[in-house]
Amino acid sequence: MPPLRWQACLFITINAVILSMLLFDAPIGASEPPAPVKQLGELLTGFGDSAWLILTSILLFFQGRAGYKLLTTARSRAQALYVSWIGAYLFTTVVFSGLLANFLKRAIGRARPDHFHDYGMFSFTPFSGHSAFESFPSGHSTTVGAFFAAFALLFPRYRVAFIACAIWLGMTRVMVGAHYPSDVIAGLAFGAWFSLLMAIVFARCGLLFKLAPDGWPLAKRLFPDMEKPGAL
Q: In the predicted model, is pLDDT for residue 28 greater than 90?
């Protein structure tokens, strides 16, 4: 892991989750979100469903592989291969972060907000086998965090927009009453960290990323010579 950065980010994440639990979770659990807010959340929350993201990543991978086989010029073949590895990277981050998040939420067994009046916000029933006790961390938010963190690492120029989208889409789980804010913060952070770890793995394999001197993964430019003066 990159030195220093991960300690600072982990410290901030833990404090954000704890403060959210102490300040925001109880008011959210004790109240019903306004109807317009809930409708907006229901409209947007489907983006965090991992199924279509997994299918899209698989499509990217095989489309890139097909292009690599069928195209003739070296440039187009390199572009196709690049797309295929993006698909592989997205598939890896979304699938495995989701699997781990689902295991964690079952192991922790936190009651969801709609059971706040029955169990409170600090009710934990590990491995209950019931979805009512699978609130922390949010699986949808984990998927959203992994997806947008992956794109923020691949296309850092637009990272602010990607971060904003991740926060908005993650918080739709609060809007629809499915999760507490702390569940969403934990899910977003977990997904983002998993994407970072996978980027480091890909960089060590020489794919998509390269490691900076401090160990941070940087997206490779597909055609770096194009940025040199007179390259055209």
A: no
3-state secondary structure string across the chain? CCCCHHHHHHHHHHHHHHHHHHHHHHHHHHCCCCHHHHHHHHHHHHHHCHHHHHHHHHHHHHHHHHHHHHCCCHHHHHHHHHHHHHHHHHHHHHHHHHHHHHHHHHHHCECCHHHHHHHCCCCECCCCCCHHHCCCCCHHHHHHHHHHHHHHHHCHHHHHHHHHHHHHHHHHHHHCCCCCHHHHHHHHHHHHHHHHHHHHHHHHCCCCEEECCCCCEEECCCCHHHHCCCCC
**224 belongs to a structural domain:** no
Residue 226 lies in a domain: no
pLDDT of residue 6: 73
Domain, as residue range, for 47:
5-219
- Tell me how many domains the chain contains: 1
Query: Of the candidates 22, 42, 23, which has an alpha carbon nearest to the alpha carbon of residue 175?
Result: 42
Q: How much is the average pLDDT of 186-197?
A: 93
What Å distances lie between residue 98 and 52, 195, 232, CA to CA? 13, 11, 44
Would residue 230 count as lying in a domain? no
pTM of the full structure: 0.87
Q: By percentage, how much of the chain surpasses pLDDT 70?
A: 93
Under 8 Å CB-to-CB from 209, ≥6 apart: which residues?
153, 199, 200, 202, 203, 217, 218, 219, 220
What tokens does 63 get? 């489309």
Please tell me the distance from the alpha carbon of residue 39 to that of residue 51, in angstroms, as a whole number.
22
In a domain, 227, yes or no: no
